[in-house]
Amino acid sequence: MAEYLKKIKRVLVDRAVEHTPLARRVRQRLSHLPWQVVDKQQDIAPSTDSNQVLYLKEYKGKFLRFCPGTRYYRCCGYRIIHIGENCPLNCTYCILRAYFQDKTLKVWANQNDLWNELDQAFGPNPDHLFRVGTGEFTDSLVLEPITGYSQDLVRFLAHYPNVCLELKTKIVDLSWVESVKRTDRVLPAWSLNSPDVYKKEEIESAPLEERLKAARECARLGFRVCLHFDPIIHYPGWEKGYAQIIEMIFDYLEPENIAYFSLGSFRCMPDLFKVIARESPHSTFIYNEFITGLDGKQRLLLPLRLKQFLFIARKLKQKGLNKQLYFCMESDHVWEKVMGYTPKRPGRAE
Ligand code: SF4
User: Fold this and answer.
1) 68 Cβ contact partners less than 8 Å away, ≥ 6 residues apart
2) Protein residue with its CA nearest to atom 8 in ligand 1
3) Phi/psi at 287 (nearest 5 deg)?
4) Does pLDDT of 74 surpass 60?
């Protein structure tokens, strides 16, 4: 079992989902851990070790949502399938650290409600192509060895050829592959960063080479993969670091293996700075020059951001990428300056 999964010390489960297939699977795979059935939310004792708790929950909210995106900036308009909250990888820059009040790893175990909601959304619209992903409020695959959630989702969505599922991750787990019927309807996706950022800010994730080997394996199996540089971090020597990871990518992949490649500069609500300063004092990138964007988020000063985007986009274009490149939450001004155009549909290079 991966080190980050060994940090889980106990499992809570809502009584309503105690006997679901997902809960039974988790119980079997974590049979060595204490298991507590919960009747009401109030029964959960407050704990200082919330990041060591896995909570299988009956989720009452909406599973399918539009990506929160952001006002005023272009976003890619895809939808989120909400399968749980929080992530044990603890990347220093992770927005979830300021987004959720506690660090409990939550998984929505009432999957029948999820399937019903998805069927109602996708079933009546067979001619509409939906691009969906699970990697917004957690990493898509980080709990896969325990829950098998993505494998269930892949099996379910095989009945909906109008849906393309992105599985975005920083770990390596290809157990879901065997359930895929159409490789053009699943986009395995890896977030990558410069080796310096990996070593300093995302140390519990899989090594970059491992992620790229997995991406190459997916390409060999007939998938096209998505890659993400998000967040791009500005630090002394960033040019060398991002040039290095770009070279590494093309040691493993051909340009035609890549469906989309997104670029997003580090941005966050101001609260995250306080969390990073308190919990990750070695993360000095937060002391850079940030301004408050139109959406209230802190963003790197525009000239610095543009310099990084221009450098990275030029290198990627030299490697043969072009139409696959897009920005996450950037303005028309940035699109024009870096790509030379503004996309017709939000976020899509076309
Ligand atoms: S892998 Fe993603 S979700 Fe998990 S801690 Fe890192 S940034 Fe957050």
Assistant:
1) 136
2) 94
3) -90, 15
4) no
Domain boundaries, the chain: 3-339
pLDDT tens-place string over residues 287-296: 999 999 888 8
Name the residue of 86, 92, 94, 268 whose CB sits within 8 Å of the most ligand 1 atoms, as the mutation to test its pocket.
94
DSSP assignments along 47-65, one per residue: -TTGGGEEEEE---S-SEE
> What is the position in ligand 1's atom list of the atom closest to the CA of 93?
7
The pLDDT, as a whole number, for residue 72 is 53
**298 contacts 267 by C-beta, under 8 angstroms:** yes
In the chain, the amino acid numbered 190 is W
pLDDT band at 43 (very low <50, low <70, confident <90, very high): low
**Cα 14 to Cα 58: distance, rounded to the nearest angstrom:** 6
Q: Select from 14, 89, 2 the least CA-distant residue to 44.
A: 14
| Ligand 1 atom 2 nearest Cα | 139
Tokens representing residue 279 in the block: 């919990």
Ligand 1, residue 90: give the atom nearest the CA. Answer: 5
Torsion of CA 124, 126, 130, 135, to 10 degrees: 70
Q: What is the pLDDT of residues 246-285, one digit of tens each?
A: 999 999 999 999 999 999 999 998 999 999 999 999 999 9
CATH number of 3-339: 3.80.30.30
- Tell me, using a 6 A CB cutoff, whether residue 139 lines ligand 1: yes
Residue 91 beta carbon below 6 angstroms from any ligand 1 atom: yes
Residue of minimum CA distance from atom 6 in ligand 1: 91
Cβ of 82 below 6 Å from ligand 1: no
